[in-house]
Amino acid sequence: MKKVKITVKKMACYKDLMDEYENPIEHACNMSLGQVFIADGPAKPEGFCDSAWDSVSPFVMALSHGAEDFYDGWMKNKKSAMISCNDGFRPVSFLLETIEDDAG
Q1: Radius of gyration (Cα) for the chain, nearest Å?
Q2: Model-level pTM greater than 0.70?
Q3: Helix (H) or strand (E) holding 57
C-alpha cells in the first residue's frame, strides 16, 4: 500500500453564511495553509479533522491502492486529487498525492 501526502492548499471562510446560519463555534478548523499530513493506510493521520477525513478518505484509500486518473483526466498529475472538506462555512481544499516508493 502506498502512502498519500495530504497538503492544505486553500482555506475559505464565508462570513455571511456563518453570520446567518451558524451557531458560534470555537476552533471549528485547526488546519493551517501549507500543513502536510501523511496517510499510511486507512487510519486518519494524527491531527487531521474528522469531518475533512470523511471527505478525503475514499480518495486517499483509492490512491493508496494504486488508483489514478480520477474522472478521466481531471488532474494533471494522474496520481493526485484535489478534494475539499464538507464544511460549507469554511471549506478547506486538500491536494492528495501518492508518495512513490524509493525502490520503484
Answers
A1: 15
A2: yes
A3: helix 50-64
